[in-house]
Amino acid sequence: MRETLILNASFEPLSTVSLRRAVVLVMQEKAVVEQSHPGLRVRAANVELPVPQVIRLRRYVRVPFRQRAAWSRRGVLVRDRHRCAYCGRRATTVDHVVPRSHGGGDTWLNTVAACAEDNHRKADRTPAEAGMRLLTPPFEPTPADALLLALRLRDGETLPEWLTLPTPA
Ligand SMILES: [Zn+2]
Fold first, then answer.
1. pLDDT tens, the chain, 169 aa long
2. CA of 29 to the centre of ligand 1 (A)
3. How far apart are CA 57 and CA 77, in angstroms?
4. Which of these, 3, 57, 4, 59, lies nearest to 32 by C-alpha position?
5. What is the distance in A from the centroid of ligand 1 to the CA of 169?
6. How far is the CA of 151 from the centre of ligand 1 (A)?
7. Do the record's keywords include Transmembrane helix (predicted)?
8. Domains of the chain, residue spans
9. C-alpha of residue 98 to centroid of ligand 1, in Å
């Protein structure tokens, strides 16, 4: 099932909705299509539309609280921009800061992107035990990270130019 990213009128990412729901919002003129899958079309109520990848609400809605992004290995790599937390080089693996064997969990605050070499070197130890230092501590994903995850961009793919993301601190 395809999902569509839904943005607030202010371009702030809100969540993802099913394709069906996205089409309904567009048909009801509650949302506009900002980006669609190239070449894919959907038929709804005798109208053919490009399959929306991102839609934006016409009216700003106040969101009382944000849904937190679910943890995933891919999410950790996206959050850390595929940079190793120990050396800053390209990361392709996910390291548990406190190893699972020590009770460390699959959480945003216990996982970092790591290059294969550092992940192998650290092995089943904490950074202190391995004599390794984290360049930056792990953190909960920002709305910008959530957006990248929702868009399912592959590494190296660029964001559409109408989107401006807050720069990571
Ligand atoms: Zn490394």
1. 578 888 888 888 777 777 888 888 888 888 999 999 888 888 877 778 888 999 998 988 766 555 567 788 988 998 898 999 999 999 999 999 999 999 999 999 999 999 999 999 999 999 999 999 999 899 888 766 666 666 655 555 555 544 544 444 4
2. 48
3. 29
4. 57
5. 20
6. 27
7. no
8. 3-60, 73-130
9. 17
